[in-house]
Write a structure and sequence with these properties.
The chain has 761 residues and is mainly alpha-helical. 69% of the residues lie in helices and 2% in strands. The two termini are 34 Å apart.
């Protein structure tokens, strides 16, 4: 008990210090973020943009699809360009042409090498010079640059407007004509894109050769190349990773782990009778399966838009379901179904653990279900309507699609979801409270489950921290609090503690051992994970020290994954420790798959892009998508399915349980995911990375690369993996329907369970 108290103390200290540093970083981002000028003026005194227009342009872009329609500073979708990189390259080329015509009466491309080099040197000097005057809050540009900016602005006005000449380009970007129908919004949009590109290439005050985004994106024309800090901290993070893994392996080898206990003779949960509130959770899991199927369908449509930008096998589907909507639903439903599975698991296990059914608990579980269903349907419908009918930025922010990846629902829906999560924590606490008060070896595990649940509820409040006019750098800071800490942090702690608790209840691991192990694992995970959030923020207008902190701590995030394969092997051995355990074979195998994808998706693919130098060239490319698919479904999705199956085991007739359908589901989904990632997304990411390194980020995201025969062939190579994966989901749905209908005959594992219970095997 003394050792456990020390671990709890260490956990509290690490969390307090880490969040203190993270909040301090936020204050520094607020103070040193790229300034938004009161006016952008040319030397002849013409006002090009105002601060209000730049902010309005940010809102117009988010309302038009935002991070579902290309990226800014590398965050968003991968089909349309990164608008900051694209503007920067187009402006540089336009300015070279303006000066070439001015000095030599020829286009830049027709000049000899010496004249081109001279103009490029002047270009680099002009683009990097910081002409923002803090006293007057005015940014002044040359008359020639003003002319170049006007040419680029005309291109974007036509692209986001209705210029028929750009129809082909819009199709390649999977954009709709008239994405920004309001003329004032169109002008403001170009101001926001200009500001994002200016921030990316002009030097920080007092620092030569380092822009506000630490020289991201790679653009040789303007001298945007990796900074020294980017390279140094990448090397340092790799050294730290190797040293930390070596230390963990040595520590594990030196530690004497207690053997697992002798498993019980029969299933301890075989005679568990679900309470009314436990039975009420079953409908949650059927909604989870429905959301999985819908998410897969939207994923297929979204991927196909990379070939046909405005149609689906010739059907003009984009007229009613454009790319921005299908991708929003695809990403949003992924988070929603995984979260719903975990929330329902918490509501199911609380009475099972405590042996207590609080008054009106079933009513609360039902109310929460219909509230969550209302939020899912309502936010999806209003997001769809707002985007399709161009209802403007105010509607998008409050009710529609905010245009932010993984947290796109309007503010009203976010508030309702926050209230719903707090209600869930209350229901969970009511169910767990007797077990928390009762002294037992499992109390520490139960406390970890409840604390993680409280953090899940409380930390969703970070989705309410930004407003319509918040600086884009701060929006990204708070968004990653939500996406990284909420989804990748406390949900994982919650799920890991629940799995340990389930194994303890089955008698497969000792409660005291699990107690200590979970606290220790949480310490190791959060020590790297909290400040590892900053690896998402290297190049989003943050101070340069973010690269150092984020690079080092994101390396530590990978360290606990070095032994995750060993834990998966132990779980496999536990699944074979007694004949009755075979009844839980597929939930346990889902947990084992989590270990595999943690190593491959979160570890291997995650660290391949997390070092500053790697992310400098690959941020916003398909390597990010490869990591995202492997980690989000492989880790969190398989966790959700495993927990769901464990709960359904106790909620359904064992005569209806079909291991055959579950076996098909498990292998098809995991093999399909591997095919999707390694046959399509990884090769596409490597191909784009080569383009980014050789010519620049603008080129890696250009139609020349994205719609090259090689890249489009890789899109088609997703089809086999997508089909295999989708068939696995269909098998899961059929399995669930059999549970409703009662099935036809008992399966092998059910017979074994009954035999084990009767004979005491």
């Amino acid at each position: 008990m003394h050792a456990t108290r020390k671990l709890w103390t260490w956990l509290a200290v690490i969390c307090a210090l880490s969040f203190g540093v993270l909040l301090w970083v936020g204050s520094e981002i607020y103070l040193s973020a790229p300034p938004i000028p009161q006016q952008v003026v040319s030397k002849d005194g013409k006002v090009l943009y105002t601060r209000e227009q730049i902010k309005q342009g940010q809102e117009a872009w988010l309302a038009a699809g935002g991070q579902q329609l290309g990226t800014v500073w590398g965050h968003g979708s991968y089909l349309a360009p990164d608008w900051s990189a694209d503007w920067l390259h187009r402006e540089a080329l336009a300015l070279l042409d303006v000066r070439a015509q001015q000095q030599y009466q020829l286009p830049f491309a027709k000049l000899d090498t010496a004249k081109q080099a001279a103009l490029q040197a002047v270009l680099k000097q002009e683009m990097r010079a910081n002409t923002y005057d803090a006293a007057s809050e005015t940014l002044q540009v040359s008359a020639e640059r003003s002319e170049a900016m006007a040419q680029v602005a005309a291109h974007y006005s036509g692209l986001f407007g209705s210029d028929d000449k750009l129809d082909k380009l819009r199709e390649q970007y999977a954009m709709q004509k008239g994405s920004v129908p309001d003329a004032s919004d169109l002008q403001a949009l170009t101001g926001f894109f200009f500001w994002s590109a200016w921030s990316a290439t002009t030097d920080r005050p007092g620092v030569d050769g380092v822009s506000y985004t630490s020289n991201w994106p790679h653009e040789p024309l303007t001298g945007n190349t990796p900074t020294a800090a980017t390279g140094i901290w990448s090397v340092a993070s790799v050294i730290l990773l190797i040293a930390a893994i070596a230390a963990m392996v040595l520590r594990h080898a030196a530690a004497k782990e207690e053997d697992d206990p002798e498993p019980p003779k029969a299933d301890p949960l075989f005679s568990l009778k679900p309470t009314p509130s436990m039975r009420a959770t079953r409908k949650y899991f059927y909604v989870v399966i429905g959301l999985i199927l819908a998410q897969i369908g939207m994923g297929v449509i979204t991927a196909h838009y990379a070939v046909e930008g405005q149609s689906f096998f010739g059907i003009p589907l984009a007229d009613v379901l454009p790319f921005t909507i299908s991708r929003t639903i695809h990403t949003q439903f992924a988070v929603l179904w995984i979260a719903t599975a975990w929330l329902a698991t918490g509501l199911y296990i609380a009475p099972a653990i405590s042996g207590y059914e609080p008054p009106l608990q079933k009513l609360g579980v039902n109310l929460l279900f219909y509230a969550l269903l209302f939020i899912v349907v309502g936010s999806t419908a209003t997001g769809w309507l707002g985007t399709l009918q161009h209802k403007g930025s105010e509607f998008s922010f409050w009710l529609g699609n905010q245009g932010l990846e993984f947290t796109s629902m309007g503010r009203v829906w976010q508030i309702l979801l926050f209230v719903g999560l707090l209600f869930w924590v209350t229901l969970l606490g009511r169910g767990l409270m007797p077990a928390l008060r009762r002294p037992s070896e499992s109390r520490g595990l139960i406390a970890m489950v409840f604390l993680a649940a409280m953090c899940i509820g409380a930390f969703y409040a970070t989705s309410l921290t930004w407003g319509r006019h918040t600086h884009y750098a701060l929006i990204e800071y708070w968004r990653w609090w939500l996406v990284h800490l909420w989804v990748e942090g406390f949900f994982e702690v919650f799920a890991t503690a629940v799995i340990a608790l389930l194994f303890t209840r089955l008698g497969l691991i000792r409660a005291a051992t699990a107690n200590t192990a979970i606290i220790a694992e949480t310490i190791v995970f959060l020590f790297g994970g909290i400040l590892g959030t900053l690896h998402h923020l290297y190049f989003t207008g943050t101070p340069t020290f973010v690269i150092a902190i984020g690079g080092m701590f994101s390396a530590l995030e990978v360290v606990p994954l070095s032994l995750v394969g060993l834990e998966a092997w132990k779980n496999y051995q536990r699944s074979r420790s007694a004949r009755w355990v075979q009844t839980y074979r597929w939930p346990v195998l889902c947990f084992i798959a989590v270990g595999f994808w943690n190593t491959v998706g979160a570890g291997l693919l995650g660290f391949s892009i997390n070092t500053p130098i790697a992310l400098y060239y690959m941020q916003g490319l398909n390597m990010t998508a490869a990591h995202g698919h492997a980690a989000l479904f492989g880790v969190y999705g398989m966790l959700g399915i495993g927990l769901m199956l464990f709960c359904l085991r106790g909620l359904s007739s064992r005569m209806a349980w079909s291991d055959g359908w579950l076996a098909a589901m498990f292998w098809l989904m995991n093999i399909g995911l591997a095919m999707m990632v390694f046959m399509s997304l990884v090769p596409a990411g490597v191909y784009q990375a080569a383009a980014s390194i050789s010519k620049g980020m603008w080129f890696a995201r250009s139609p020349e690369v994205v719609h090259s025969p090689f890249m489009e062939s890789l899109v088609w190579l997703r089809v086999p993996g997508d089909v295999v994966f989708a068939l696995g989901a269909v098998c899961l749905a059929i399995f669930a329907l059999r549970l409703l209908t009662g099935g036809r005959k008992p399966q092998t594992s059910d017979a074994l369970a009954g035999q084990a219970t009767k004979t005491g095997v």
